[in-house]
Amino acid sequence: MWYVFIGILILIVDQVSKIVVAGLSGVTPGSLGTDKKLVATLIDGFLEIEYCENNNGMMGIFSFLKDGRIVFIVATVIILGGIIVYLCLSKNRVKWLNTALAFIISGALGNFIDRVFTKGGYVRDMIHVIIEINGKEYFPYIFNVADIALVVGAIMLIIYILFIGKDAVFCSKARRERLAEEEADGKKKIAEAKQIFIDKENEQAERDNAENNVLNTKNNALNTENNALNAKNGGLNANGNPENIGKTNGN
Questions:
Q1: What is the pTM of this model?
Q2: Catalytic option among 14, 35, 114, 147
Q3: Helices 145-159 and 2-25: crossing angle, nearest 10°?
């Protein structure tokens, strides 16, 4: 399953990037608080690697929560559990949906690992995209690879719900009919494949029964021959018995 590989790759990149940037920052884990530490400037005035320890959710947008760690851990478990149940029960998912769910799962797991294993339950963020107009910054948030995966996965999921899925909100009548035909064709092919399998099983059973009948016929013939030989041997034994010979001579 290629989308599993995508999810694992995203998770590895997320965790490795966090470990490397945290190490380069020289900050003692859990001691940064609400401060930030500039590690590198990749594109002057636009893209920086700026390490921070975030306790307020993705890009710090849930700062109003008093005990965000527990809330985020519970929410992540519920969301991942729901997705896993859906994956186990659903069939014939399109590649787009599988990819979207892979992004969401890997992103959620990336930040979940931080929430569980870091002291204080913070998430390690480091990517700072500077969007500044007339000296005013319009995007002050710092995020990580897991956040990117979550956003990309969510956008892909919304696109699927609106435009791609067979029950999409903005799906044309012609496309619905085509999807229905494809679904019916798929079910027909599955039914045909099942019937072919059943027919082969029946043919094999008939061959087995024919072979068993031949063996039974041969066994019956052998039993008949054995019975005839036993009867013949019994007659010879009766004629060769001394008592029978004496009786015959006395007569």
A1: 0.71
A2: 147
A3: 150
